[in-house]
Design goal:
- The protein is mainly alpha-helical.
- It has a domain of about 110 residues: Rna Polymerase Sigma Factor, Chain: A (Orthogonal Bundle), CATH 1.10.1740.
- The chain has 9 helices and no strands.
- Helix 2 crosses helix 3 and helix 2 crosses helix 6.
- The chain is globular.
- About 5% of the residues have low confidence.
């Protein structure tokens, strides 16, 4: 028989890919090698598991928001350790909420019943898992385009590729996402 604590721990584990995706979106690429997204996510899940008794929410949305807040605080704490400028400190949690909101809107907005909300959260977790399965270059351009709302021109500059190359990565990435999610192309 699975204890309630084990069940909650398994529930938190379902959010691992989602947290990875959000961490990738929030971490400055200049910090690569200094701050590892996997470490940040692992610390976030450890803090969440340790403080699970303090979580008072009832819904998947409340759990996701709670985990986003822990992730934002974990990133801020890690940045403080590296003595980097923290101009973004106050806006990091807000930016993370905006990224999450864009992601949820991308799936399907205006679903209001509890069952619709549960379906949307399940889709969100499936999308985060599918994004994690994409090749790195495809995943990065899809996230920049659809979750950070960057233009193809800006993405090309960021990733050091031509605009047609970025467009191809986007097309292949979206095609693979649809395949992974079981949608018709």
């Amino acid at each position: 028989m699975v204890s309630e604590a084990e069940s909650k721990g398994q529930q938190l584990h379902r959010y691992r890919d989602y947290l990875h995706m959000l961490a990738r979106l929030q971490l400055d690429p200049r910090l690569q090698g200094k701050l590892d997204e996997s470490d940040v996510v692992q610390q976030t899940l450890a803090k969440a598991h340790q403080n699970l008794g303090q979580f008072r929410g009832q819904t998947e949305a409340e759990l996701a928001a709670w985990l986003r807040r822990i992730l934002a605080n974990t990133i801020i704490d890690a940045l403080r350790k590296f003595h980097h400028e923290l101009d973004r400190e106050h806006s990091l949690a807000e930016t993370m909420d905006q990224s999450s909101a864009r992601l949820e809107a991308w799936l399907a907005a205006n679903q209001s019943s509890p069952s619709d909300q549960a379906v949307r959260h399940e889709q969100l977790l499936r999308l985060a898992e599918a994004l994690g399965q994409l090749p790195e270059d495809q995943r990065r351009v899809v996230e920049l385009r659809y979750l950070k709302d960057a233009s193809v021109t800006d993405i090309a500059t960021l990733v050091g590729r031509t605009e047609p190359a970025v467009a191809g990565l986007l097309r292949r990435g979206l095609h693979k996402l649809r395949e992974l999610l079981g949608e018709k192309a």
